[in-house]
Amino acid sequence: MHDLFPGRRFAAILFDMDGTLTDSIAAANRVWRRWSLSHGLDPEKVLPIIHGVRAGDTIRRLNVPGMDVEKETEVVKQAEIDDVEGVVAIEGAPAFVKALPPDRWAVVTSAPRELALRRFAAAGLSVPRVLVTAEDVTRGKPAPDGFLLAARLLDVTADKCLVFEDTAAGVAAAEAAGAAVVVVNATHATPLATPHPVINDYRYLSLSMSEAGVSVRIQL
Predict the structure, then answer these.
(1) I want to staple 147 with a disulfide (CB 3.0 to 4.6 A). Which of 67, 76, 95, 177 is the partner?
(2) How far apart, in whole angstroms, are the C-alpha atoms of residue 80 and residue 159?
(3) Does the active-site annotation cover 23?
């Protein structure tokens, strides 16, 4: 076993949800494909920009003339809540988070709270004591606000946290918060180019905890 970050112990671990703890990419793609087609949009141009950011931010970015962003955000939200077929936990994730004390971890997701709870249930994952969702911040990823808020709610500072993320927007948010980063490539056909440590799942990770903090070890 080797430390992912030799000599470092972290006050807390912060996780993204989709693509990091849960594999929900098929469900999300189904919903956004249907939504795109219903508005005459090319799904192949929409799907690459949906992951890691809030639905409303994606719709706003598309800049469709005359589109009611708030209304369409609710449409997408409800469609995603209704479709959790195939949503599962990333391998090893349930045991990994279960091994963490409740005051040592949090989830920071671009999903709205109702959807996050639905996907946690579908994947059989425990809901963390601290869950920061789309509604909890004014600025979504790649802004650092969600990670900064989660750290504050855990009574730590973000620069003493380790973040698990899977998207460019999420990694940028974690970096801007000053956190260390691990990239999860479980759901991506094309691995994210990154200088950070990369894992495919959590099966080969273990935790070591002390009063000094948490360290993460990997079996090579």
Answers:
(1) 177
(2) 33
(3) no
Which segments of the chain have a pLDDT < 70?
220
Rounded alpha-carbon distances, angstroms, from residue 79 to 9, 55, 73: 40, 12, 10
**Predicted local distance difference test score (pLDDT) of residue 173:** 98
Q: Which of 18, 57, 145, 166 is catalytic?
A: 18
| pLDDT on residue 191 | 77
Helix or strand run (H / E) with residue 114: helix 113-123
DSSP 3-state of 65: coil
Looking at residue 164, which CATH number applies to its domain?
3.40.50.1000
pLDDT of amino acid 193: 86
Range of the domain at 67: 25-82
Q: What is the structure's pLDDT at 137?
A: 97
pLDDT of residue 94: 97
DSSP letter at 18 equals B
Between strands 213-218 and 205-210, the pairing is antiparallel
9 within 8 A of 214, measured Cβ to Cβ: yes
Is residue 216 within 8 Å of 207, Cβ to Cβ?
A: yes
pTM over 0.85: yes
In this structure, the answer to whether residues 9 and 77 fall within a common structural domain is: no
The pLDDT score that the predictor gives to residue 60 is 96
Give the 3-state secondary structure of 182-211.
EEECCCCCCCCCCCCCEECCCCCEEEEEEC
> Of 64, 82, 100, which residue sits at a domain end?
82
18 is catalytic: yes
Token readout for 123 is 């994947």
